[in-house]
UniProtKB/TrEMBL annotation:
It is found in: Cell membrane. One of its GO terms (molecular function) is ATPase-coupled transmembrane transporter activity. Belongs to the ABC transporter superfamily. InterPro entries: AAA+_ATPase, ABC_transporter-like_ATP-bd, ABC_transporter-like_CS, ABC_transpr_CbiO/EcfA_su, ECF_ABC_transporter_ATP-bd, EcfA_1, P-loop_NTPase. This is Energy-coupling factor transporter ATPase. Keywords: ATP-binding, Cell membrane, Membrane, Nucleotide-binding, Translocase, Transport. Residues 2-235 form the ABC transporter domain. SUPFAM superfamilies: P-loop containing nucleoside triphosphate hydrolases. Signal peptide: none annotated. One of its GO terms (cellular component) is ATP-binding cassette (ABC) transporter complex.
Length: 265
């Protein structure tokens, strides 16, 4: 379990970014985090894996605590961060080396490496690209390689920080599909996004505003709440659903719900 316990963070003392934030994420959950520009989402992501440390409060992962220096290595092994720009995440020249790199850092024995590399690339459907150069791949392929490099290290939590925002619609769909598959295989997924349609894949949504959690609940409950800001416009289908006043709860199969209702009228 991941626990934020009354966490505060600032870069500059006079400008608090995260204020008294507490929440828990259970193992195996799929949580979306949304919020306006500059609301502190990336800061929160970095607090999860100890890239940033709370100024007050604690971030714990099971028995580990990011404030304990000896725990940091284990925490970073367990929490994989996928960033917005896959280019920033590449260090080597081939897809194979890219995935091997992290394993070498973890001192994984040679004989264990290849099964891990192949498994990770298969999970993102990039197993045919071992010798490809990461920089020549499409945006979505790059992002999938970045995910494979993390998966090979066998994390228990994957944090995606706007990892789909530079991709075209089809590539976004592919990455979301990868997230869902990984979630089904037991990984905890934390998906930071400003695409409101993407949060419908999550079981739960946290809305971050001015450094505090303003909403914690299901995606459909968020869309039904009145306090959304202009930056967080629900997907068209949800607005249509609300406008029509249809008394049917929206779940992750919302597209189907809308299609069915629409064809009945
Ligand atoms: N290294 C830093 N030094 C000083 N201030 C920073 C630093 N990084 C972020 N900030 C500030 O902290 C606030 C929150 O930034 P953060 O990147 O966490 O927001 P975000 O919700 O991820 O935004 P975006 O939607 O643009 O990705 C912003 O006001 C930002 O300017
Ligand atoms: Mg950000």
């Amino acid at each position: 379990m991941l626990v934020f316990d009354q966490v505060n963070y600032h870069y500059r003392r006079e400008h608090p970014i995260i204020q008294d934030v507490s929440f828990e994420v259970q193992e195996g959950e799929f949580v979306a985090i949304v919020g306006g520009n500059g609301s502190g989402k990336s800061t929160l992501a970095k607090l999860i894996n100890g890239l940033l440390l709370p100024r007050k409060g604690q971030v714990r992962l099971n028995q580990l605590n990011t404030l304990q220096h000896v725990d940091l290595k284990k925490i970073r092994e367990q929490v994989g961060l996928v960033f917005q720009n896959p280019e920033d995440q590449f260090i080597t020249t081939t897809v194979l080396d890219e995935v091997v790199f992290g394993l070498e850092n973890l001192r994984i024995p040679r004989e264990e490496m290849m099964p891990r590399v192949e498994g990770a690339l298969q999970a993102v459907r990039m197993e045919d690209y071992l010798d490809a150069m990461p920089h020549q791949l499409s945006g979505g392929e790059k992002q999938r390689v970045a995910i494979a490099a993390i998966l090979a290290m066998r994390p228990s939590i994957l944090v995606f920080d706007e990892a789909t925002s530079m991709l075209d619609p089809q590539e976004r769909k592919d990455i979301l599909e990868v997230m869902r598959t990984l979630h089904q295989s037991g990984l905890t997924i934390i998906h930071i996004t400003h695409h409101m349609d993407e949060i419908l894949s999550a079981d739960r949504v946290l809305l971050l505003s001015n450094g505090s959690i303003r909403f914690d609940g299901t995606p459909s409950a968020l869309f039904n709440s009145v306090s959304l800001t202009d930056q967080l416009v629900p997907p068209f289908a949800v607005r249509l659903h609300q406008t029509l006043g249809l008394d049917v709860p929206l779940g992750s199969d919302w597209k189907e719900t809308i299609t069915n209702l629409w064809s009945m009228h």
